[in-house]
Amino acid sequence: MKTRVILVGIGGATCSGKTTLAKHLRRILPNSVIVHQDDFAPPQELIPIHPVYGVQDWDRAEGAIDWPRMVKALDEVKRTGEIPPEHISHDHLNEQKDVPIDDAVYQKWKTYFEKVDQEHRARGEEVKWVMVDGFLLYWHPEVVEKLDVRVFLRVPHDALKQRRHERHGYHTAVQSDPEGSLWRDPPNYWEQIVWPAYVEAHQGILENGDVEHGKPNGKVPGLILLEGLELSMSDMVDRVCGVLEGLSSGGGDKGSA
């Protein structure tokens, strides 16, 4: 059976709701998995020290992700639709607020994509969906190029800051340790490290470098901007599924094995 792999990028700042959205899509889409960009962070001992503030900088794009390892993993996922067996995820260790969606939205799209899946199988084709979620998803051109759909969740500074401060820490991606390592923000980490790094990584993809209000400027082709405080999670799921509806019914070479 021919395999068609569709990579769906779900990008946005820390605490923007991207992982929640990706998990709702995984529940809806048959044959789907999630690749978390956080799992490609280098080991804690290799995270750079900020030159001004003297603390580890987990957020600046150049040092926050092991880019060659992520690109290689996405290559394999794109080819097979499977997460590499040696890859360890720590997402399940992180606390996450439950943000439910309307059952009508869930049922509508689950029924639709199950029907589409059966139609593809009848034609000898298996469609595999891979959600790729990340806080630096649209920074590296080789990562951007591999994504078939590019969604960006935008949430204003003050709301992000509040959500970040309500979190108790993050389990970081130590590939050799299933439990990872728990990171807690030092004082003023949001103001000094997290937000400036987010602005630096995203100002190039939005008009006038305005990460709060700018529209996509075309640098990331086909970027779908979702305003996270203006749309409910149900709205966002509905919008993204509407985009995927067009992809799933079409042909095109999205990777095959």
Q: Largest sheet at a glance?
A: 5 strands, parallel
- The number of helices is 8
Strand order of the largest sheet: 2-3-1-4-7
Could you say which structural class the secondary elements and strand pairing correspond to? alpha/beta
- Mean pLDDT, to the nearest integer, reads 88
Q: Report the β-strand fraction as a percent range.
A: 15-25%
Report the end-to-end length measured between terminal Cα atoms.
9 Å
Share in helix:
25-40%
Task: Supply Rg.
Answer: 18 Å
Shape: globular
Order of helices and strands: EHEHHHEHEHEEHEH
Please count the beta strands (DSSP E, at least 2 residues each).
Answer: 7
Any overview of this molecule?
This protein has 8 helices and 7 strands, in the order E-H-E-H-H-H-E-H-E-H-E-E-H-E-H. It is of the alpha/beta class and 257 residues long. It has a 5-stranded parallel β-sheet with strand order 2-3-1-4-7, sandwiched between helices. Strands 5-6 form a two-stranded antiparallel ribbon. Strand 5 (170-172) and strand 6 form a beta hairpin. Helix 1 crosses helix 8 (233-249). The relative contact order is 0.25.
